[in-house]
Write a structure and sequence with these properties.
Length: about 475
């Protein structure tokens, strides 16, 4: 999943950079607001049925067919509401030009609903290869189409058609990979079971998604499309990075934990994933925070310079997601979707409070508030994990403390080094030197000060790595005297 996500994200990033150079911030902002509506609607359409299929003890044809038809019905309702209700509201409160964009993009809801159960089947079978492959193919085809349309002068519609083509290919390829066609069966007993599990989870995911989008909604409504365009570009690179280094662990952890029956086994498995993912996640995102302004200016041109400051602030708030993503998977696998819902509500309330207070001061201050919220809400994640799995908050913090400390020191030293480098050096050269320096600092701290953490990471990596990669890891262990 990580390998495929890297390839897919590289494709997405290159395409997004090209499109951002061809389109104006206001055009990016118009489509960005419409896509917020789409992303929120997708959560409702999925309705937690995919997770229900994953968590079900065994594959049941009738159970899956019932979920499929429920999904289709829900997808039709959401499509109609988006077309006839939400789109006019967007036109009235945001921008009249966005109404047609939302109406056309509402087709995505039906396509999403048609593949949710099939995707659940792939996940419960651990067929992540097929999931990853379809994502790469859909991203590549839709990206090429989007760039071509942008060059032909289609403006915002280039982005719209990119999204539609991507969803069409995702749905078709998911059906093909799942090798399953729903039977003509519908059970009210299974309906009750599906809704009982998925309703609180769906509400939690909806609130959580709305919480993550509230800043963008407020920026669009209070400051305008251009400001939203700048904010979106600043967060886009980080979103792609999350897809590479956080999402694969989260997607694989849920079906894995669902197969474990004992509470302690789930707790220890979750802590293992937290520890190993923090080792490389923290330096990546703290490094992104340090190099955000330089990267944005180099990749997107100085037209988007303000987005670099946004990227720095947002990246500083990514670290807590290493805990929250794994805690949510553990709570869901254990059937405690009510806690997942409560966490989503807490996050939403905090984002609303900070958003209303800080968005009027500009997008950089708003981004700083978003990062602050991440650290405030993680307290509740750790508290609920302690309540369900009897793992103390201090024990959870000890798991990530070494890597967090090393990454924070790296960030501070890279920021300091910026002032020492000659200002007339080429931007690309400065970026490469700073990235290399930051990497060496982190490796030095982890190898010399937090040696036990590095020993553990290499040991876990050797156990999971393909046979061809194991000699390289063994060599590193001997080189650092950590074998």
């Amino acid at each position: 999943m990580s390998t495929a996500a890297s390839g897919n994200s590289l494709i997405s990033l290159v395409i997004f950079i090209i499109l951002s150079r061809l389109l104006a911030p206001e055009e990016i902002g118009l489509v960005a607001f419409a896509l917020i509506v789409v992303e929120l609607g997708r959560v409702i359409v999925n309705a937690g049925f995919s997770q229900a299929i994953v968590r079900h003890p065994e594959w049941d044809e009738h159970y899956a067919a019932t979920g499929f038809y429920l999904n289709l019905l829900l997808a039709l309702v959401v499509t109609a509401v988006a077309f006839w209700v939400v789109a006019p509201l967007v036109a009235f409160y945001y921008d009249s030009r966005a109404e047609l964009l939302v109406q056309v993009l509402s087709v995505i809801f039906f396509l999403e609903g048609a593949k949710a159960v099939h995707e659940g089947k792939l996940k419960r079978e651990f067929n992540f290869r097929a999931i990853a492959l379809r994502t790469v193919i859909a991203s590549l085809v839709s990206g090429i189409a989007g760039v071509a349309l942008a060059f032909l002068g289609y403006g915002v519609w280039a982005l719209v058609w990119q999204q539609l083509i991507n969803q069409i290919f995702m749905t078709l390829l998911t059906w093909k990979s799942a090798h399953w066609f729903p039977s003509l069966h519908f059970s009210f007993l299974h309906t009750r079971s599906l809704l009982g599990f998925s309703a609180p989870l769906t509400l939690a995911q909806l609130v959580s998604n709305l919480a993550s989008k509230i800043y963008e909604l407020l920026i669009g409504l209070l400051i305008g499309p251009a400001a939203l365009g700048f904010f979106r570009v600043g967060g886009r690179v980080l979103f792609i990075m999350q897809e590479i280094v956080i999402k694969p662990f989260e997607q694989a952890l849920l079906p894995a934990l669902s197969r474990l029956n004992e509470r302690d086994a789930r707790a220890q498995a979750t802590l293992r994933v937290m520890r190993i993912s923090a080792y490389f996640t923290f330096p990546i995102f703290f490094g992104a925070a340090a190099l955000g302004p330089e990267f944005i200016e180099l990749a997107f041109t100085d037209k988007w310079a303000q987005s670099g400051q946004v990227m720095t602030m947002l990246a500083l708030g990514i670290a807590p997601m290493v805990i929250s993503a794994q805690v949510n998977s553990a709570l869901t696998a254990s059937g405690h979707t009510n806690y997942v819902m409560l966490l989503a509500v807490i996050t939403f309330v905090l984002n609303c409070l900070l958003g209303f207070l800080l968005v009027p001061f500009g997008i950089v201050v708003a981004a700083a508030g978003y990062a602050l919220r991440a650290y405030l809400s993680i307290i509740f994640n750790m508290l609920f994990f302690k309540t369900i799995f009897n793992v103390g908050i201090l024990q959870q913090l000890r798991i990530i403390a070494p890597t967090f400390t090393a990454a924070l020191i790296m960030f501070a030293l890279v920021q300091l080094t910026k002032f020492l480098l000659p200002a007339d050096w080429a931007l690309g050269v400065r970026l490469l030197l700073l990235a290399g320096f930051g990497g060496l600092i982190y490796i030095f701290i982890m190898s010399c000060i937090f040696r036990d953490e590095t020993k553990h990471f290499l040991g876990e990596s050797a156990a999971m790595a393909p046979a061809k990669a194991k000699p390289a890891i063994t060599y590193l262990q001997r080189l650092l005297r950590l074998a």
